[in-house]
Design a protein that fits this description.
- The chain has about 375 residues and is of the alpha+beta class.
- The chain has ten helices and 13 strands.
- The chain is elongated, with a radius of gyration of 32 Å.
Length: about 375
């Protein structure tokens, strides 16, 4: 889900100033009048990243969302991290706007400049202890996949090519910032390559590490979907549906199903909503899947076999019967010019409309007869 919000010229200028000022620690970004605009800059009090996190305290509010760009790796080309801070007490519309625009922010400013994106909902996560816990969790994650290593090399090459230029590189905006595990990517590829085996792949988001992971693979039929897809957590599901093609032969089509139960946590809702398009792009480009239908539902119970089957039924075209051209004149009636001294009036019934002629006295007599 994309919000349509873009970076303002003021934000681009402020970020370029941050790039040109190695000692500046960071920059706050807000959404104002449907644009990303710069907030206060964060000047360092020391050369230590963790010590400078105390500088965020006056800028982080209990009920106001914000983006925080921080310089963490000063000697690297991708020296920044982008923090999306969305407290639970922020207004609902603000939550959705910031969640759906978080990837747009780094794309507008240049994804090659950012090594990591972080989603936070509490002030504690933005302290030194909070960052250390985050780092420890990331260290426990699996090493980079081959696709991620390739993407990293591309980003570094693009960064070297564009170094010294303040112009953003729009051609990399299609990259998905959230990493995907080897198991998840492997399951998607197998779904597209294999003629048999499991036909349902469910992916989930690891909220703490913001990573796409494999939830499960299984064999399912249309009636099974409402029970095998999780009813307690959001899911990105890819289902290979076997059906009859228009030429009478059997065919298998990939359906993308996004479910987000009403009991899901706010942070889960925002992460899944903002990652939906990225997951589809990864499946289509990375795993070479051809997705023919996209379905969204609050709960798996809404996935009825009838409604899905209806999407694959060939459209029956009904030929319109030939209509004989009507005669000229209103309602197809032939209008005869009355003689001098006569008047014309229109008599109507349920079946037809016609013009009748006669004298005024004849018309009055007929009207009385009707009454």
């Amino acid at each position: 889900m994309q919000s349509g919000i873009a970076a303002s010229a003021e934000l681009t200028a402020a970020f370029n100033n941050l790039l040109a000022s190695p000692r500046q620690r960071g920059l706050l970004v807000k959404i104002d009048k449907e644009k990303l605009v710069p907030g206060p800059s964060i000047e360092p009090s020391s050369s230590d990243f963790f010590s400078d996190l105390d500088l965020l305290t006056p800028h982080v509010k209990d009920n106001e969302a914000a983006y925080i760009i921080l310089r963490r790796y000063p000697d690297a080309s991708d020296s920044f991290i982008a923090v999306t801070y969305v407290p639970d007490t922020a207004p609902v519309r603000q939550k959705m706007l910031f969640a759906s625009t978080r990837l747009t922010l780094i794309r507008e400013l240049g994804i090659e400049r950012f090594r990591e994106t972080i989603f936070a909902t509490t002030k504690a996560e933005l302290t030194a202890d909070g960052f250390r816990k985050h780092d420890k969790h990331v260290e426990l994650e699996a090493p980079l996949t081959e696709e991620e290593q390739t993407l990293g090399a591309v980003k570094r090459a693009e960064s070297e090519e564009g170094r010294g230029s303040s112009v953003k590189r729009s051609h990399i905006s299609d990259h998905f910032a959230m990493p995907i595990s080897d198991d998840a990517m492997g399951a998607l590829k197998k779904l597209g390559d294999s003629e048999s085996g499991d036909n349902l792949v469910q992916l989930k988001i690891n909220v703490s590490s913001e990573t796409i992971e494999l939830a499960s693979t299984s064999t399912a039929t249309l009636p099974d979907l409402s029970t095998v897809i999780s009813s307690s957590e959001p899911r990105f599901s890819f289902f290979k549906h076997s059906h009859d093609a228009t030429n009478g032969s059997s065919s298998a089509s990939i359906i993308f199903i996004y479910t987000c139960p009403g009991a899901s946590k706010i942070k889960e809702r925002m992460l899944y909503a903002s990652s939906r398009q990225g997951v589809i792009a990864v499946a289509e480009k990375g795993a070479a899947l051809t997705i023919v239908k996209k379905i969204e539902a609050s709960d798996p119970d809404e996935l009825s076999p009838e409604s899905i089957e209806e999407e694959f039924k060939p459209k029956v075209e009904t030929k319109k019967a030939f209509d004989r051209p009507k005669r000229p004149g209103r309602s197809g009636a032939l209008l005869v010019v009355p003689k001098v001294g006569q008047m014309a009036w229109r008599a109507e019934n349920r079946a037809c409309k016609a013009y009748l002629f006669g004298t005024i006295s004849e018309h009055i007599a007929r009207q009385k007869a009707v009454v």
